[in-house]
Amino acid sequence: MYGGGYIFDEPNKKQLREEQQHDDPEKLAIFEARISKGEKIEPGDWMPAEYRRQLTRLIEQHAHSEIIGALPEGTWITRAPGFKRKLALIAKVQDEIGHGQLLYNAAETLGKSREAMINDLLSGKSKYSNVFNYPAKTWADVTVIGFLIDAAAIVNQVANAKGSYGPYCRALERICYEESFHLKQGHDALIALATGTPMQKDMLQDALNRWWQPIMHFFGPPDKVSQHSEKLMQWRVKMASNDEMRNQFLDTYVPKLWELGLTLPDPLLHKNTETGRWEYTDPDWDLFFKVINGGGPCNQERLQVRRWAEEEGRWVRKALMNPKERRALPVA
Ligand code: BYC
Question: Which PANTHER family has this protein been placed in (predicted)?
């Protein structure tokens, strides 16, 4: 089990107990009125137990996604083509880990300890984004992640940064600044391959073909299937539905791929000019649920790496928490 010894605020147990017993209708009405006025909810404010539970779930999954998401690209740091691409990739991977820290901090304000969150990740209880359960086989995979997965994340994060929970929104705003840089480096790498040699272009097209379905899955199941959207949108945690975000992503990024002469592996993909909506082949949602529940090609490998990091880092956390051992640590 995780025995990190991070310092985190003790949750207000009395407040948590009260919320869990029942949601006082008067307090609920004041809370919902604040949300509809666009006010931010802060950690010390009263909130319904379900709001706390849903936010904890969502922010925690987001934090895990950043940490696990650093792994596919991280394996390419030693193999990035050239000094500048290597520098940019190192910085990006560090940023993703930093985003994980910001998000764990935001989730901790809701009362769940970081230890409990890490335990739930390592035991496979908590989810993280489906896309990070696929391998990054070539440099073109890293390019597709850097452009399209960061783009998909930006669509989601820019919208939700205007949401109702203060600590999550502030973390998302900061993350979005860094993600915008990631997107630019991803686009630059994508253009280099798309306009490079035939072999580079083929490698990119192959990566795009393999990543397309996971990227379509990234925004979550269709609105008619999504379990949490209705409540989360009512409480302005999610500022757009899964299908709306998917549509926004297609609208912005498909033309950028087509203009580079790339194709997408869906013969039905097109924008309906009358409705303004994109139409596409429904991705395989059974596969999506299999992947997010531990059955993807890399789930085991990803968690094994995190368990290894957990074990190997235990002595550092222990030493940092113990003043006597801290004095004995070498000074850099
Ligand atoms: N992957 O009711 P629904 C990054 C689950 S990392 C896995 O629609 P919700 C980056 C969902 O949890 C940024 N699971 O859910 C890092 C639920 O299961 P549970 C990643 C998914 O929450 C490194 C069930 O399906 N971004 O940018 O209303 C390198 C039903 O779904 C997924 C975030 O994490 C999925 N894709 O909406 C490069 C954004 N989709 O919990 C880049 C934060 C759904 O009931 N998350 N599920 O067992 C969200 O905004 C929302 O969770 C979602 C789904 C829109 C994804």
Answer: 1,2-PHENYLACETYL-COA EPOXIDASE, SUBUNIT A (PTHR30458:SF2), PHENYLACETIC ACID DEGRADATION PROTEIN PAA (PTHR30458)
CB count in 10 Å sphere of residue 37: 7
Locate the ligand 1 atom nearest the alpha carbon of residue 72 and give its number: 29
Give the number of the atom of ligand 1 that is nearest the alpha carbon of residue 68.
23
Q: Which token pair is 163?
A: 């949401």
Q: Are 120 and 282 in contact (CB under 8 A)?
A: no
Q: Helices (H), strands (E): how many in the chain?
A: 15, 2
Which residues, judged by CB distance below 6 Å to any ligand atom, belong to the binding site of ligand 1? Answer: 57-58, 61-62, 65-66, 69-70, 73, 96, 127, 129-130, 145, 149-150, 153, 156, 217-221, 226-229, 232, 238, 242, 292
Strand partners, 278: 271
pLDDT for the residue numbered 5: 38
Q: 22: part of which helix (H) or strand (E)?
A: none
Write out the two tokens for 92: 């990006």
The closest-lying atom of ligand 1 relative to the alpha carbon of residue 245 is 55
Ligand 1 midpoint to CA 44 (Å): 26
For the stretch 36-71, pLDDT in tens is 999 999 999 999 999 999 999 999 999 999 999 999
Test site for ligand 1: of 125, 129, 183, 239, most ligand atoms within 8 A of the Cβ: 129
Q: What is the DSSP letter of 292?
A: I
Closest Cα to atom 36, ligand 1: which residue? Answer: 218
Q: Which amino acid is at 109?
A: T
Tell me how far apart the terminal alpha carbons of the chain are, to the nearest angstrom: 30
Q: Give the bridge partners for 165, in sequence order.
A: 41
pLDDT tens string 228-261: 999 999 999 999 999 999 999 999 999 999 999 9
CB 55 within 8 A of CB 70: no
Give the gyration radius of the chain's Cα atoms: 21
Helix then strand then coil, % of the chain, to nearest 5: 65, 0, 30
Give the whole-angstrom CA distance, residue 100 versus residue 202.
34
Domains and CATH numbers, the chain: 2-307 (1.20.1260.10)
